[in-house]
Amino acid sequence: MPRVLVLLIAGLVTSLVVGGGLVLGLAGGSDGDSGEGSGEGAASTPSDTPTTAPPARPTTPPEVTLSEVDTLTTAVRREAFCDAVAPGAVQAALATVPTGSTSYVDGQAAQVTGQVEDIAHEFACGWTASRVTARAWVFAPPVTRRVATDLVRTAQREEGCEAEPQAPPFGRPSVALVCRTTTGLQASFRGLFGDAWLTCTVSGRLERSEATERADRWCVAVLDALAEP
Fold it and tell me: Which residue, among 184, 188, 138, has the nearest Cα to 162 in the 3D structure?
């Protein structure tokens, strides 16, 4: 892997481990999807050939857990995925209907830590309601097994975070963490799927067991949205 990519990914780790990774700017009330494009789109051209919408992608029921899913052979796409996340899975992760959402894509200016904005190098989205937030993001650059192992080790050393040793695998290598943040607990799963580094989190004022259980099921839904057909 080129040294510049290793440095890029290493720089992302610090902001991604605690606090839900790159801050998605979620707040009650005025939040909305920031959009994933730049307003582009050509006008449609009439055609004599009838067109039909593609069939809806089947989704896994929200009660399914990672232990029931083969995460070790799943291939994950490194692209935008927010629209593919099942609304029912979002509601299950939040335990209510979301009141706000946000997203950004690779190359888009995004709020990272605090009030700092930078160019994003991942595809990310999140939903919030009643002080609970469900987020997910996948790195845009490909990640090697060696770099992924470093990401796991760095995450495990973060202050305020504890690994869940009995957690089911989430790719290979992977790590499941519970971290204390200023807004409560954050339960997360992070792992490598092929060359895609994927993270999903649930955070808020939750008991530890509840946070981890919601994160577990939430990550199944995220995998559904990103998995190769």
Answer: 188
Q: What residues form DSSP beta bridges with 122?
A: 139
Return the number of other C-beta atoms located less than 10 Å from residue 14's C-beta: 11
User: What pLDDT was estimated at residue 55?
Assistant: 39
pTM: 0.74
Task: Please give the Cα distance from 149 to 151 (Å, whole number).
Answer: 5
Domains and CATH numbers, the chain: 3-27+67-226 (3.40.1000)
Is the confidence at residue 163, as pLDDT, over 60? yes
CA distances from residue 147 to 83, 90, 143, 161 in whole angstroms, order as listed: 29, 30, 6, 20
Q: To which residue do tokens 């989430």 refer?
A: 170
Q: What angle do CA 71, 72, 73 make, to 5 degrees?
A: 95
Q: Encode pLDDT of 169-184 as tens digits.
A: 999 999 999 999 988 9
Name residue 196's beta-bridge partners.
Answer: 193
Q: What is the pLDDT of residues 61-120, one digit of tens each?
A: 767 899 999 999 999 999 999 999 999 999 999 999 999 999 999 888 776 555 567 787
